[in-house]
Every structure is written in structure tokens, then in C-alpha cells.
Specification:
Blueprint (H helix, E strand, L loop, with lengths): L1 H22 L9 E5 L2 H5 L6 E4 L4 E5 L5 H19 L15 H25 L1
Parallel strand pairs: 1-3
Antiparallel strand pairs: 2-3
Helix pairs in contact: 1-3, 3-4
């Protein structure tokens, strides 16, 4: 069906970005497990999740319903920075998801947005 083709294309982009990160000598190995998640209720909730990283099992979960592939891969790039933070020992034990309550979490997020987005953009520009 249609969803399978869509997911295959998404996986190709993710693979390409991972290869780019490896070429740039980013510390991402061992690579995380990547899970594609369909959750219609989550997709209808404005504050629903787009993606998350679980450091305990080194797993990135990407929510895909109602999203452009480019947006999903940008989320992936962000979560890969959290994976790198985990591998290099800076992630620590975050107890909240509220950036207003935890200064360390705010710094981790700043790095993930900055590095994740600029890496994504550099990768995108390298393909054009």
C-alpha cells in the first residue's frame, strides 16, 4: 500500500542523513534503534509528541502521522543530538520535560536545536 512506499522514502532520507553525520565524524555510534510510530490521537493533539529519544535503550521514536517527511527527518536530526549527548555523557539524568524547570535540560535542548537543525540544513544543501 501507499504507506509502505512513504515509509521506504522516509527511511532512505534517514539513512542518507546518518551517512552524512558519519562522514562529518559526528559521534553517533553505536547507532540508535529507530522506530516509526503511527498515533492518530497524538497527531491531532497540538502538544502531542513529534519524536523522542530513550537513552536507556538508545532508541529514537518518530511520530509520522500528518507530517511532512522533511519535518520528520528534522526531528530525527534533533534526536540524534540527544543520542550523541547520551554517548558522550552530557545527557545526564533529566527528571522533567519542562525546560522552564531545569536549566541543564534547557542547555541540552539548545544544543539539540542548534546542532540538529544546522546539521539537517547542511545535509539538505549538500544534496541540492
Amino acid at each position: 500500500g501507499y504507506k509502505k512506499v512513504e515509509e521506504l522514502e522516509l527511511k532512505d532520507y534517514i539513512t542518507s542523513l546518518v551517512e552524512y553525520m558519519l562522514d562529518k565524524k559526528m559521534n553517533i555510534t553505536p547507532l540508535p534503534e529507530i522506530k516509526i510510530r503511527h498515533d492518530e490521537d497524538n497527531s491531532k493533539n497540538f502538544f502531542g509528541r513529534t519524536a523522542y529519544y530513550d537513552p536507556n535503550v538508545k532508541e529514537i521514536v518518530l511520530f509520522v502521522d500528518g507530517r511532512h517527511n522533511k519535518d520528520i527527518v528534522r526531528s530525527f536530526s534533533h534526536e540524534m543530538v540527544h543520542h550523541m549527548q547520551n554517548l558522550n555523557g552530557t545527557l545526564g539524568n533529566v527528571q522533567t520535560s519542562n525546560t522552564n524547570e531545569d536549566e541543564h535540560l534547557q542547555e541540552l535542548e539548545k544544543e539539540a536545536y542548534l546542532t540538529g537543525n544546522i546539521t539537517f540544513r547542511n545535509w539538505e544543501d549538500s544534496l541540492k
